[in-house]
Automatic annotation (TrEMBL):
Residue span, Carbohydrate kinase PfkB domain: 23-312
GO molecular function ontology, one term from the record: kinase activity
Name under which the protein is recorded: 2-dehydro-3-deoxygluconokinase
Alphabetically ordered keywords of this record: Kinase, Transferase
UniProt xrefs under CDD domains: KdgK
Length: 341
């Protein structure tokens, strides 16, 4: 089984710990991006995964590619092109203080790319599973057109397409709205991944989901996922992550999966001391893709995804630095967090 993910990877500059920007004159430099994060998760589980993007030809981008390779992600398809490397600045937040992301990614190499710049036939040769997100089509007209081209090509080749809808309200500045584009992309998606806000803001499907209520209302998520599947007859399934919180402090973390035949709901984790929430959704997507391609049992796949994502909340950085065993142990029920000797 061979996987390919496509999107933008950025330099991530984070204020240390829970400090505000420039509280101390330091920013921690790592790399991250939704689709690269998924590729790293899959590589950590031992999968054969490639990541494709466009990066400038400079030493910072070289370091980024080397970092992906360190995890075992195949970077052979990454193109170098005009433009810069995108940056995102991050304040961690804590308790009621939300984490804050500032994007500085205009004119990045991938934002400057246009349809035809990536040879999808070559990139998708031998690929079984293709993953994108709603972030790439939000960054520029060209990246949107490339995203559409990618899912159409994948579909025509019989490759399974997953898409994390990932609505980012501070992107979508080039003249198209999220629903205008994402409702088109969704027609080519086999496995959709979302939270309730993504479904509402990217697909324009609104039902009365009370996210502020402080408890998981599974019937509402069943209805919401049914509505999406009704609107997209080609979609095989949708997974929705359920974050139960009134503040930046998560109380409960779970997910559901609707495959048209059955509605699955995962166990619920309490995560009260969040080390880094960025990449939690990508860890879920990576776990779900792994689970769906390695287990016959969709409940098991969902439990694996939620366990992977739960662990990510305790790991600094975008990447989910876990092993297959770490996730399997938690998914099997070892949530004690005790010292392992
Ligand atoms: O928000 C984005 O565009 C990013 O890719 C930054 C983070 O890596 C991403 O939000 C994690 O899902």
């Amino acid at each position: 089984m061979r996987y390919l993910t496509f999107g933008e990877i950025m330099l991530r500059l984070k204020a240390p710990g829970v400090e505000r920007f420039f509280q101390s004159p330091v920013l921690e430099a790592t790399f991250g991006g939704g689709e690269a994060n998924v590729a790293v998760s899959l590589a950590n589980y031992g999968c054969d995964v490639s990541y494709i993007t466009v990066l400038p030809d400079n030493p910072i981008a070289d370091a980024c590619i080397a970092e992906l390779r360190r995890f075992g992600v195949c970077t052979r398809l990454i193109k170098r092109g005009p433009g810069r490397m995108g940056i995102y600045f991050l304040e961690g937040g804590a308790n009621q203080l939300p984490s804050k992301v500032v994007y500085d990614r205009a004119y990045s190499a991938i934002a400057m790319a246009k349809p035809g710049d990536i040879n999808w036939d070559e990139a998708m040769d031998g690929i079984d599973w293709f993953h994108i997100t709603g972030i790439t089509p939000a960054i520029s007209e060209g990246a949107m057109a490339l995203s559409l081209e990618s899912v159409k090509t994948a579909k025509s080749k019989g490759i399974t397409v997953s898409c994390d809808l990932n609505f980012r309200k501070n992107l979508w500045k080039y003249g198209k709205s999220a629903p205008e584009v994402m409702t088109e992309i969704a027609k080519y998606v086999d496995v959709a991944i979302a939270n309730e806000e993504d479904v509402q803001k990217s697909l324009g499907i609104n039902i009365d989901v009370d996210v502020e209520s402080g408890k998981l209302d599974t019937d509402k998520y069943r209805i919401l996922s049914d509505e999406v599947l009704k609107a997209y007859p080609n979609m095989k399934m949708i997974a929705i992550t359920l974050r139960e919180s009134k503040s930046a402090d998560i109380n409960g973390w779970a997910a559901c999966l609707n495959d048209r035949e059955k509605f699955y709901i995962s166990r619920r984790y309490e995560i009260n001391d969040i080390i880094d929430r960025v990449g939690g959704g990508d860890a879920f997507a990576g776990g779900l893709i792994y689970g769906l391609t390695h287990y016959d049992d969709k409940q098991k796949a969902l439990e694996f995804a939620v366990a992977a994502s739960c662990l990510k909340h305790s790991i600094p950085g975008d990447f989910n630095r876990v092993t297959l065993k770490d996730v399997e142990n938690l998914a099997k029920g070892d949530a004690s967090g005790r010292v392992q000797r």
